[in-house]
Amino acid sequence: MNLPAFGAYLRQRFPPVNMALFAILFGTVYSVAAALQAGPAAQRAWGWPEWLGVAATISFFFRLRVFDEIKDYATDLEHHPERVLQQGRVTLGQLQAVAALGTLLEVAWSVGMGWRAVVGWALAVGYSLLMRYEFFVPTYLRPRLVLYALTHILVMPLLIGWLWAAYAAPPLLTPPLGLLALLSVFGGLSFEIARKIRVPADERPGLDSYSRALGYGGAVAAVLLVLLAGVLTQGVLLQRLEARAWPFWLVAVLYAATAAAYGWSLRRPSARALKLAELLTSLFMLSSYVSIIAEIARRW
């Protein structure tokens, strides 16, 4: 494999900022497990198993990206010929080889963390394989973008469950796990909707968008409703953590700013306004996790 080309692919399709977010997601699950359901995470300092856990989490998401590249290769070849993969600078076979190496790391880490983690990993990977083959009904799912998104976002609670099983003390199925799972769903779904809203002039035949599926106003309303559900979930989790006031204010201000940005995009539809709103949606997801880690870290 040409390493500079692979680096270019990562910058384009799996950038470092995404990897950082996945690392923060791991840290959030680890922190909540330590704070609310004391297990292995509460009994030792952060060490090499945690760094391997971060790498395993990133690997899991990279494999999801490769699955998407396989499914969408023909469409992207037509609509995004400028991409590194479509130009042939890296190949699907090379990406699958990297994903396979990452899978070995995930297995090794899960085995090292105990049988519960192995079961959690197997469930998450099993579901992701169903996603890879679009639940064996691709012709039914693909035209139904909302249903497609809902079926695919459900991998997030399973991934959270995998990490939770590695660190939380039994019983595992508890309210903190449920809140983390919901937060991951609402955060992931809001970002998914936000990145596929386009002004009418930018809609392109053959490229799916929520603004086409739900209407421009409907897509904006959908992302704001999902974000609001995330705000409420975040609030309940912060209460359980006995958090200070600042995370509540941060989430509220970010939601208000996001709503204002989308309001602006409704009054004056433009790609610039939507890009700002998408950025704020991403910041909400990031701040949700970081504020949880920060509030737990102050206790240690």
UniProtKB/TrEMBL annotation:
Keywords: Membrane, Transmembrane, Transmembrane helix. It comes from the Bacteria. The keyword Acetylation does not apply. The chain crosses the membrane at residues 20-39, 113-133, 145-165, 177-194, 214-233, 245-264. This is Prenyltransferase. It comes from Hymenobacter lutimineralis.
